[in-house]
Amino acid sequence: MPRNSLKGAGARSATPRRPARVPRSRPSRPRADQPGESLTDRAYRDLEELIVTLKLPPGAAVSESVLSRQLGIGRTPIREALQRLARERLVIILPRRGIMVSEVNVKSQLRLLELRREVERLVARSAARRATLEERQRFHQLADSFEQAARTNDDTTFMRVDREFNELCLVAARNEFAANAMGLVHSLSRRFWYIHYKQVADMPRAAKLHADEARAIASGDEKAAAEACDRLIDYVEEFTRATVSTDV
């Protein structure tokens, strides 16, 4: 595991590596693009998934022109998506030297969890209180999807369901300040999981913890939602610390 922190992520060398080759086909998603989705949104979703699932690995150099050509999206949406990914610390923009996918660090991940624990508890309670009937129905469906992904050992589907769950929690919580805070950490957390889960993670346990929280929110039980959130973060912290003995 690289020793550099996410604050200085991607700084293993002053010069980015040769630009990474991007898969020719766009990453598929569990449902079609949402109506009204902008090209920048589409570019962000595609690039975020490529990074989180390590098709663009830590330390890889990326090029606007190559990404534009291979994803079939114009350079302006690609540039705007990369700027958003830079704000989320998934890429590092090096003036006059290019763009790099950020590195990963356990200590930084643990600091990230300090923020996640406090804000996600608030989000879980707020979502349980404010979710609409339609949103509650979707939380029930996501709980089922988490468990199905675990049964089939489908890591990519698990990541996509987790992403939708996180996004729905933020929408249902209806707190723009919490949403802004959490928008900076979910992608980093999913990438860390994807890197290490085969070595130290317990997929059925993780799925059950996610499903428990989704169902507590769906039922409108604020206390149960907060407690389920704490149990999930307890597990994520345990998982994060366990990675130290594998490859750090």
Explain what you see.
- The protein is mostly helical and 248 residues long.
- Helices cover 66% and strands 4% of the residues.
- It is built from eleven helices and three strands, in the order αβααββαααααααα.
- The protein has helices spanning 39-52, 64-71, 75-87, 106-130, 133-152, 155-173, 176-182, 186-200, 203-219, 222-242, 244-247; strands at residues 61-62, 91-94, 98-101.
- Strands 1-3-2 form a three-stranded antiparallel sheet.
- A hairpin with a 3-residue loop joins strand 2 (91-94) and strand 3.
- Helix 2 (64-71) packs across helix 3, helix 4 crosses helix 6 and helix 5 (133-152) runs antiparallel to helix 9.
- The radius of gyration is 18 Å and the shape is globular.
- Mean pLDDT is 85; it is low at 1-15 and 24-32.
Question: Nutshell version of this structure?
Answer:
The chain is mostly helical and 248 residues long. It is 66% helix and 4% strand. It has 11 helices and 3 strands, in the order H-E-H-H-E-E-H-H-H-H-H-H-H-H.
